[in-house]
Amino acid sequence: MFKEKVKGLLDSALEQRKDLFLLSFTVGADKHIKVVLDGDDGVNLKDCMDVSRAIEHNLDREEEDFSLEVTSAGATAPLTLPRQYTKNIGRSLEIRQGDYRIEGKLIAADSDTITLAWKAREPKPVGKGKHTVQKEEQFSISEIDEAKVVLKF
Questions:
Q1: Dihedral (C-alpha) 3, 56, 35, 31: value to the nearest 10 degrees?
Q2: Cα–Cα distance between 15 and 21 in angstroms, integer?
Q3: Whether pLDDT at 20 is above 90
Q4: pLDDT tens by residue, 144-153
Q5: Half-sphere exposure in the Cβ direction for 2 (13 Å, CA)
Q6: What DSSP line would sit under 83-135, residue for residue?
Q7: Are 149 and 88 in contact (CB under 8 A)?
Q8: Nearest-CA neighbor of 10 among 46, 80, 59, 74?
Q9: Is-contact 52 36, C-beta < 8 A?
Q10: Chain segment 121-137, per-residue pLDDT in tens
């Protein structure tokens, strides 16, 4: 009952903010509420505070003893939703599918697939030596085991 009430308040808060979306929501046995958000333009402290207040101000601490944590996904958190891929177009991603790993620039994304581009050194078709070629590959989001944004410093 408590979890459903909190979920309803969370859904209502996110309905007001279409740019934010839910990555995970848990309520522990000790009534510790944890909400992890992401947004089309990222998530800042004010976004977390707004969602936290929308939940906390509608629950009565006299009736329920709870703790509440509202956070953003973090820069190195794995991408899990198609909407996260779309917002990261133009950034470098590292993709893992089983034993296959590839790093490239995310150049396209939709609800089912993403496209990565990268440069690779390959043997010349004729003669000795190697040359740099532009590679591009499409991946089905459902077949990706893990995808992370690669931070460059």
A1: -50
A2: 9
A3: yes
A4: 999 999 998 8
A5: 18
A6: HHHHHTTTSEEEEEETTEEEEEEEEEE-SSEEEEEEEEEEE-SSSSSEEEEEE
A7: yes
A8: 59
A9: no
A10: 999 988 888 989 999 99
